[in-house]
Amino acid sequence: xxxxxxxxxxxxxxxxxxxxxxxxxxxxxxxxxxxxxxxxxxxxxxxxxxxxxxxxxxxxxxxxxxxxxxxxxxxxxxxxxxxxxxxxxxxxxxxxxxxxxxxxxxxxxxxxxxxxxxxxxxxxxxxxxxxxxxxxxxxxxx
Length: 142
Description:
Glutaredoxin, 2 domains, 142 residues
């Protein structure tokens, strides 16, 4: 799935070019906008720089009360991020598509599956937890 953004970008580029050839410029523009949005949503670099698993592992326990392992294109991750709002900035975010060690950690706590979001709260991993639980823990830290 890490590579899915590239074929989507190519597909929408081809559709845009075809629409230009047919003279439907509005359709070409729509394909281009949708294609860029979908490709960005799926690309592994979405969300900017996140921490690496190694960085998080070396922190003291009190410095990392909530660690969120996520990946681009995950609807559950987006729901969690949206629900947390401003409190989400207090969590440590690790993109498993940018860090193989993070992906290995997520597989180790999820029976070999890369299920995200996997949230580590006070050292205990939770797979796709209720966002209100994560929000309460982050609010307690304030």
